């Protein structure tokens, strides 16, 4: 009986080692990777402004065309959200450049409140990001620095693994198209 137990243990251990080695060769389907471009250089902004409530908007490129986004717009946009940590650009927490994706994200609710969609309610964006998207032209690029009061404030901790409560946020935004 002892010989059987040892043989079983050896075979089980050997199989487990082979299985674990094989796991390292494949991509983890649950792991999120970011391939976002470098942050825009704020010193190259054409203009900038700060609102009374602390929203800072840097216009890197104005964009072209007669049409500007408004609260009813549906848009195709690239963006990367980063935390500001101790006055410096911190880690990425959200981007349209996830998992080797190269297409823009589609945003359908630039209103400050929930909106009814064909498959249920469409939640609004955080206020600072939503306001930064308004009045943009196609091809426009912006950086927005969002104070906590216009971001996630003291909201409940999210399930995405990021705690963005009371954080200052930076979004680099490029408007691809007004749909």
SS summary, helix count: 2
User: Which secondary-structure class do the elements indicate?
Assistant: alpha+beta
Helix percent reads 10-25%
Could you tell me the CATH topology label: Chitinase A, domain 3
Radius of gyration, in angstroms, nearest whole number: 23 Å
Q: Under the CATH scheme, which class?
A: Alpha Beta
Mean pLDDT: 83
Largest sheet composition: 7 strands, antiparallel
Low-confidence stretches: none
SSE order in H/E notation? HEEEEEEEHEE
Strand residue percentage: 25-35%
Q: Give the number of domains.
A: 1
Report how far the terminal alpha carbons are from each other.
73 Å
CATH architecture name = Roll
Please tally the β strands and state the result.
9
Question: Can you walk me through this structure?
Answer:
With 179 residues, this protein is α+β, with helices and mostly antiparallel strands. The protein has one domain (32-178): Chitinase A, domain 3 (Roll), CATH 3.10.50. The chain contains two helices and nine strands. Strands 1, 2, 3, 4, 5, 8 and 9 form a seven-stranded antiparallel beta sheet that branches. Strands 6-7 form a two-stranded antiparallel ribbon. It is globular and about 75 Å long. The chain starts with a helix and ends with a strand. The model has no long low-confidence stretch (mean pLDDT 83).
Q: What's the quick description here?
A:
The protein is of the alpha+beta class. The chain is 16% helix and 30% strand. The chain has one domain (32-178): Chitinase A, domain 3, CATH 3.10.50.40.
């Amino acid at each position: 009986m002892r010989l059987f137990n040892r043989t079983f243990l050896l075979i089980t251990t050997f199989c487990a080692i082979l299985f674990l080695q094989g796991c390292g060769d494949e991509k983890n389907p649950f792991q999120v990777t970011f391939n976002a471009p470098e942050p825009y250089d704020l010193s190259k902004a054409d203009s900038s402004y700060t609102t009374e409530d602390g929203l800072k908007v840097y216009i890197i490129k104005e964009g072209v065309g007669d049409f500007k986004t408004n609260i009813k717009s549906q848009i195709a946009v690239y963006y990367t959200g980063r935390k500001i940590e101790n006055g410096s650009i911190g880690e990425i927490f959200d981007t349209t450049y996830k998992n080797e994706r190269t297409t823009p994200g589609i945003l359908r609710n630039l209103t400050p409140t929930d909106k009814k969609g064909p498959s249920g309610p469409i939640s609004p964006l955080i206020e600072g990001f939503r306001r930064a998207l308004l009045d943009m032209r196609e091809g426009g690029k912006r950086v927005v620095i969002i104070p906590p009061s216009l971001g996630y404030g003291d909201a409940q901790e999210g399930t995405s693994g990021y705690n963005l409560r009371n954080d200052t946020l930076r979004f680099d935004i490029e408007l691809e198209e007004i749909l």
